Amino acid sequence: MPAQEPRPAASSQTLSRGIQMLELLARQSGPTTIASAAAQLGVHRSIAYRILRTLEDHDLVERDASGFLRLGAGLAALAQNVAKELQTAALPELNAVANELGMTAFLVVLEKATCITLQSAEPRDGMANVARKPGSRHQLDVGAPGIAIQSALDHADRELLLPGIPLRSEVLVARSRGYATSRNEVIAGLSGVSVPLRIPGQRPGALAVVYISSAIPEDAIAARLNKGAAAISAQLA
Q1: Among 37, 75, 174, 230, which one is least packed by beta carbons within 10 Å?
Q2: Element counts in the chain: helices (H) and strands (E)
């Protein structure tokens, strides 16, 4: 009698919903209620409440006095060792870029055809800073960081990491000039400039800035980002 193939392990629906809840809250730009979260997840309010209570017990979600939800401080403790060497090398450069250009600077890495913000820095003297929370995620085919990451991938890398994702013409432009730009792609009214960051042993990534308006030419912004990327690479070489 032939041996039976092992059945694939069943995934945990409860764990999956808890992760989906964290991802949902990370995407929100304003206050969120339990009722809204339940509706967006497609579950009954009582199920959403149980998920949130568990996340609260581990300091991953918080509720304010009005009952609005937000990500908890416990997430920072979990995230502090993610790509720790890269974060340590990048933070001084992000702070320098943010303060010199007066823009929010951030580091993103590639994760399953999405861009995830690993670290960010806002300018000290900015009057209208644009927040970019670590853990924020957007699709790779929109926004300057995703275009910049793609511009540094060769054909083999692209086939391996991004199967089936169409190649935008902007990727070829970014590859030619060494940086990517975007406007109104991830968040309406915002512009972005980004350069690729490739370090052996690390995920493909990018340094980027996002801003509402600026008198600084895009190529000058890109030059400063490339300087930062080179400094990070030198530290981790």
Answers
A1: 230
A2: 9, 8
